[in-house]
Amino acid sequence: MTRLLRTVLPGLLALLLVALPVRSTQPNEPLVADLSEHLVAITMGFAGSEVLLFGAVDMPGDVVVVVQGPKREVRMHRKSRVLGIWMNTASMTFAAVPSYYAVNASGPLDQIALPQVRARQQMGLEHLELPLPRAKASPNVAEAWRDALIRAKAREGHYHAEVGKVRFLGQRLFRADIRFPANVPTGSYTVETYYLRDGRVVGAQTTPLMVGKVGVEAEIHDFAYNRASLYGLVAITIALVAGWAAHSVFRKT
Question: How far apart are CA 185 and CA 46, in angstroms?
Answer without folding.
Answer: 13
